[in-house]
Specification:
Layout (H helix, E strand, L loop, with lengths): L1 E5 L3 H12 L5 E6 L3 H10 L3 E3 L2 H5 L4 E4 L3 H13 L3 E4 L7 H14 L3 E3 L7 H11 L3 E9 L10 H11 L1 H12 L2 E8 L5 E7 L4 E7 L8 E8 L2 E5 L6 H18 L7 H20 L3 E2 L1
InterPro entries: Gfo/Idh/MocA-like_OxRdtase_N (IPR000683), Gfo/Idh/MocA_oxidrdct_glycsds (IPR050463), GFO_IDH_MocA-like_dom (IPR055170), NAD(P)-bd_dom_sf (IPR036291)
Protein name: Gfo/Idh/MocA family oxidoreductase
Keywords: Oxidoreductase
């Protein structure tokens, strides 16, 4: 399957384009960017053409991977889906429920396959953890992701504006929701910087807690998730060192969904469910009350 990469930033270069260029069953056919010079430079690095016209690239591919800010991603998904191209998106799929609904509508109307790149969901360690969790009568769970965004390659305007909730919150939900069930309500409290603390009520009747931050000191960073139940405590330490391998798996799974006409567990509908929880958490931060999803 021929893929185009939409985006020219750090993640587009080091993960999306790199993963596709070395993929055993997919090929990188071109790169699009809002800045033609950057698109051509990234394309030259992988010996493919750079474009600033999305339609011109779409004419040469079967699918696209998208690595741009969420608000930029929405119209690109609409254009790609309308052209009949399968889509591999970044999370979150929008910065509001209205944006997420636009993405879902575009994909469903076009009948194309979709996968949202919740990185940890495409790793063997996570699959094993979720399988173990499914065999356990669970009573709850928790997650903590503390990072220092300033000065990192991910220190972008949209992340500074929307904070850890919208950037790494989707990853947390991509782990706790399949383990514990859909989230029905959220309570939230703010800490220092962009730190947020969430209490999630799940439709299985259990609750989980999540702490997210992009503003801790470098010595305080780390990621840990766990669920607990009748078989004890199941801990997951997500792998943040091998996103290229994870993206290659996501590409394989998108290709399979496209060929079979099936849906993927991390498709845009799941992505929309994640946005709904984030929006409820944002409301809870403002009201100080529990908010329904």
């Amino acid at each position: 399957m021929r893929f185009g990469v939409l985006g020219t930033g750090h993640w587009a270069q080091t993960v999306h384009a790199t993963a596709l260029a070395g993929h055993p069953s997919a090929s990188l056919a071109g790169v699009w960017g809002r800045d033609l010079a950057k698109a051509k430079a990234l394309g030259a690095e992988f010996d493919v053409q750079g474009y600033d016209d999305v339609a011109a690239l779409l004419d040469r591919v079967d699918a696209v991977t998208i690595a741009v800010p969420p608000d930029v991603q929405v119209p690109l998904v609409e254009q790609a889906a309308a052209a009949g191209k399968h889509v591999l998106l970044e999370k979150p799929i929008g910065l509001s429920l209205a944006e997420a609904d636009r993405v879902v509508s575009a994909v469903r109307s076009a009948g194309v396959a979709s996968v949202v790149f919740f990185t940890f969901r495409f790793q063997t360690g996570t699959s094993t953890w979720l399988t173990q969790a499914a065999r356990t009568k669970l009573a709850g769970g928790a997650g903590s992701w503390l990072s220092a965004l300033a000065g990192s390659p991910f220190d972008s305007a949209w992340r500074r504006r929307h904070g850890a909730l919208w950037d790494i919150g989707p990853h947390a939900l991509s782990l706790l929701v399949p383990a514990l069930g859909a989230v029905t309500s959220v309570q939230a409290g703010g800490g220092t910087g962009d730190t947020v603390h969430l209490v999630l009520q799940h439709d299985s009747g259990v609750a989980s807690t999540v702490t997210l931050s992009h503003t801790v000191t470098p010595m305080s960073t780390g990621i840990e998730f766990f669920v607990h139940g009748d078989a004890g405590r199941l801990v997951l330490l997500p792998d943040t060192e091998h996103p290229i391998d994870a993206l290659r798996v996501a590409v394989e799974e998108l290709t399979a969904a496209a060929l079979t006409g099936g849906t993927h567990p991390c498709d845009v509908s799941f992505g929309r469910d994640v946005v709904a929880v984030l929006a409820a958490a944002e409301r809870a931060l403002g009201t100080g009350c529990r908010e329904s999803v």
